[in-house]
Amino acid sequence: MLNRVILIGRLATDPELKYTPSGIAVANFVLAVDRYTKDAEGKKEADFIPIVVWKQSAEFAANYLTKGCMVAVDGRLQIRSWVAQDGTRRKNAEVVAENLKSLDKPKETSAAPAIGEEPAPADARPGPDLGSDELDDPFADE
Known about the structure:
By secondary structure, the chain is mainly beta. It contains 1 helix and 6 strands, in the order ββββαββ. The protein is globular.
């Protein structure tokens, strides 16, 4: 049997870090993943997927990731069910991340070179930071 999920998307919420009673870090966030299709008005559609990360990955997410960051998530799908206080049966689907990687370039701390350092050539400098709205989906017309 196989239960493997690989996603690339942008954080739709800031990670929320908590600790279990035994001190293990756990973070939750929602990942927005674009669909290849568009709605009737031609706008991109997205799925908003709950993600759970544990231990060092949870602390990494809380310390370095914010809403809008692009990340890759590799994990497994988990379905939880419970009975609510009103007696109704509820279910929740989430991805439990085993690997989490930031796909955004690190932000430069200073645009000016250090004293005695030559500035980087123009072709070696990073390009503009483009948001997902400024990028075209290469599969949209297929």
